[in-house]
Design brief:
4 helices
Length: about 375
Amino acid sequence: MLCIRSTCRTTLSKSNSILFRLSSSTAPDEQVSSKSSKAKSDWKRRQLGSNFIDTLSLSVISGKGGSGGVAFHREKFKERGPPSGGPGGTGGSVYLIATPTVTSLSHLPKTVRAGAGASGGGKWLAGKRGEDVVIRVPVGTVVREVKVEPNSEEEAEAEEEERRELEWAWQVNKVRLHEAEKREVRWSSWKKKRDLQDKFGVKENEVEVKAWEENEEEELPREWEEALSSFRRVLFTMYPQAELTGHPSFLTTEHHLLSKMLSKEVDLPGKKQRRPRRRRRRNSSNELEEEPLLYLDLTQPTSTKEDPILLVSGGQAGLGNPSFLTHQDRSPKYATKGGEGEMMRLELEVKSTGEVGLVGLPNAGKS
């Protein structure tokens, strides 16, 4: 029995030593796993804590309007049909509603962008409208519009340079339009005389009508011409291989658009970045003035279908070439491009309320 007990003791001591060695060898791995699990739980806890956001800076951008189409109707036994380019689609707008189903601003990104409108097609087919976006915020949210100013002197100088180029383009267009109108008068007079001469011949004491001669255009600075061509590419869609530089109808339409841009009735086309939203209204003296910045205190829920709040409107749709059909121009070979979308920067703040309660064991005198 003694021998058996001794062997049992030795066996137990060996097993204990083996277990001790095993436990000592796995201790570092257990420490690493415990650290990783703790880090994971801390990360989850941080994520859970950041899900509630009560202040947010938000940039809202509406969609760009689609360009108008330049096309002509074609069918059997009709080689030259009327203009059939459809208008472009209006850009998507951005709306705002307050709903009790939302309790935080964590679901909103920092930039909200609406869809762009599609271009118009042939056979008078209009482009698809851009998709609207609805921003849902909790009831009790305060919305403030932040005025966007140029961030640096370089941006301010770029805007001044763009304005100067617009004035140059307007001057060149004015000169070319005046020359085109004079050319049109000379052409109609020459054509009438030439038709009479071809019909009745040259009579006595009459001078034979000479061949048509083009007058030389007035020379203008090269940078002025380049400015006009640059704005022309931004504003119009041309039919392939169309020569419209001396066309009176086209120059009249171009002069109308440039005059609106120069008087700030229409914003300058955004070549590099979207323009901030500029709401303007006419005062009693019929002058344009900017409206005050947007400020909303949404204390009541708003309906999605009945009265959503419009933040920024979508870009204006471009016109197809049938819109420029006149008695003088029966086949307009140009259309306008869609307008740029608007941009607005907002500061959102949720007015939250706190509650106070007592925590403790039952019958502990909390009352």
